[in-house]
Amino acid sequence: MVSYVLNLDRIALYIHYERELTEEEKTSIKQFLKQMVEEKKSFDEIKGEKKDYKTENLDIFNKSVEYLKKNGVPSALVDTEYIFSEALKVSRNTLKYSMSREIKEEDKNKIREMLMLRAKNRKPLQYILGEWEFYGLPFKVRENVLIPRPDTEILVEQCIQLMREIEEPNILDIGSGSGAISIAIANELKSSSVTGVDINEDAIKLANENKILNKVENVNFMKSDLFEKLDEDFKYDLIVSNPPYITKEEYETLMPEVKNFEPKNALTDLGDGLHFYREISKKAGSYLKDTGYIAFEIGYKQAKDVSKILEDNNFAILSVVKDYGGNDRVVLAKKAIKADNFEEIEEDEDVDLS
Predict the structure, then answer these.
(1) CB atoms within 10 A of CB 32
(2) pTM to 2 decimals?
(3) Locate the Methyltransferase small domain: which residues (predicted)?
(4) For the chain, what is the domain count?
(5) Residue 129 belongs to a domain
(6) Annotated binding site for S-adenosyl-L-methionine: which residue ranges?
(7) Domain range for 152
């Protein structure tokens, strides 16, 4: 009876059990129960004919997939699933169990609007939905702030592993954008104190919204051009950054979803893609503890160059980590002992270096 009233497959009731019933649905259930008692009949005996919308809805869904494919949208099936889930207010995992319910005209209009934005404008799905998941957490996204990428979760995972054994690590995230890296790390390392800096005021505002959304207290965001507003006397255990690393030439070849919508200055340095690695590596040592680490996300061809930049600035390379596609994606390094300090130690007769 309940699945009948809610227009759901019976198995879907177990998936939607936390959903609050509308007043209209409650009334309908009460009326059926009352009729069953008064007439002493089973529900199957008293239910009227009710249209099954599954065939109609699946037809609409399949036509939507074809529409996106025809307009050259990658991952047309997955995008359609997300769009329908958003319009119907169900999770993508439970969408197939909700296809028997009627799709109201206003929801069909929402679906049409989102499909057109995705197909004709090639607007990124994340901006259409206004929210995206990163490291298992929800994040609000807007056009003037970079969309969090799955590969960046590898950077987060490596940072968490580096800091896991430190009691109360202080962590700096340079170019924090939506706050995805900062918030994900802070959420996993409850005893940490994370600071995210970005030059974009809109990004800082969005990061603070995501901090509230995810109820993470041990993270703060501030506007700063790299280290500009930071106190050099305060030392961090880790500096992490996913800087703009796309070269000027590569930027011109990007997909329209990226090139026409995402902020240019968050993607490219309009040069060789190494500018921010140089600038951060040059000053990072002054803001790190002697035992401090640095972690960079990199372009798939940049491991050698970024490693050289770090080594030239007194960092020892720990590892280069690959992404899900087998490409180099993260460089991890540790602050090295300065050569002149090492010479002083070597000259001390009380220290046995053998």
Answers:
(1) 17
(2) 0.81
(3) 162-251
(4) 3
(5) no
(6) 175-179, 198, 242
(7) 134-340
